[in-house]
Amino acid sequence: MGRQDKPGQVKTALPYYRGRWQMSQAVLAGQIGLSQAAYSDYELGRSFPRLDTARRLAAIFGVPIEVLWPEVAQSELEK
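The chain above was modelled as a monomer; its predicted structure follows.
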C-alpha cells in the first residue's frame, strides 16, 4: 500500500466519509460554498482547503480535523 492509500490521507479520507454520509461531491461542495470542481481537487489531493473550510468539512463528517488532514492539524498546533 502506498502512502496515499493509507486511511486518513487526503485522497482516501474525503471520499470515504462523503460515501458514509451518502453525499455527492456537488451536494457537499454546495454545503461548504465551493464548486464541485474545487471540492474534487481536495479529494484528488490536487489542492488543500483553507483551515476554515477544513474545519467545516470535519464538522460535517463528525470527525476531528486531523483525521482528514493530519499534516494541516499538526502545522496549526505548531503555531
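Residues 5 and 12 are 7 Å apart (CA to CA).
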